Amino acid sequence: MDATIKQDLPPEGGYQKIQYARNPAKTYFRGGRLLAGFILFNGCTTYYYFNHCYPKVLHEMVEKNGARLATLPLLMAERDRAYLKHCRAIRDEEEKLMANVPNWEVGKWKGEQIYKTLDRNDFNDPILCEYYVHAPYMDFWKKAHEAQIQV
Amino acid sequence: MANLTEPILRTRFTDISAALFTSQNSECKDFELRYVYCLEAYGKSLGESKCKDLKEDLRECVFKIKQLSRVYAISNERSRQLKSGELKPEETYGPIPKPDSY
Fold it and tell me: What's the domain of life for this entry (chain B) (predicted)?
């Protein structure tokens, strides 16, 4: 049997020295270079965005606006036609409805015009209530509250 | 109560808030202008009788009294006719406006 017994001894040469000195992290660049890098990076991306990407966005915007302006007269004319036709239809319907009511003159209230000092034959724009007078109440309500209802 | 159309003392402080009590920013500006010119021409006491129509037109523009009463009357007449049977059920509503045409 061997005479050497295994002992738990320190390694050869002893342990290393204990580190107690400060060991800060390695700094690659400090304040000045950081700022310069920031400015350089932002400058490059700004240049790229405004000279390459934004013109495409602008082109699409211009095209869309041009289309809107081109179709605007058609839509406005259509709307005006529908408005005037409906005003006429309301007046005819009122004439039909109130045919048997005593002392009712179409377009007047109690024998006198609505606006006394205006010319008799001038067109008087109806108010919202009047525009929807022969329609279901909910249509009027929805139009009156359309700012809140927006889908 | 006195017939007040302007403040008792006209100072700079009363003129500051003069722009609040006006209809010049609404659809009734022409009505108001005509009434006020008439009042200025005739004065307050004579203006009461001469500018009556203009005053009532301004009131009508601001409050829409006659137009609303007309709407009410027509609407009531319609429901009365429906109930009594003069209008058939298919005719409950008259011409319905297209959306967004007002």
Answer: Eukaryota
ipTM comes to 0.80
Domain-by-domain residue ranges, chain B? 12-85
Residue with tokens 């009047």: A130
**For residue A71, with 0-12 CB atoms within 10 Å meaning exposed, 13-18 middle and 19 or more buried, which class applies?**
exposed
**Interchain contact B34–A (C-beta under 8 A):** yes
List of residues 6+ apart from B66 with CB closer than 8 A: A109, A114, B60
**C-alpha to C-alpha distances, A99 to A96, A104, A113, B78, nearest whole angstrom:** 6, 8, 18, 12
3-state DSSP assignment of residue A109: strand
For chain A, list residues whose CB is within 8 angstroms of any CB belonging to chain B. 79, 82-83, 86, 89-90, 93-94, 97-98, 101, 109, 114-118, 126-136, 139, 143
The separation between CA A66 and the C-alpha centre of its own chain, rounded to angstroms, equals 20
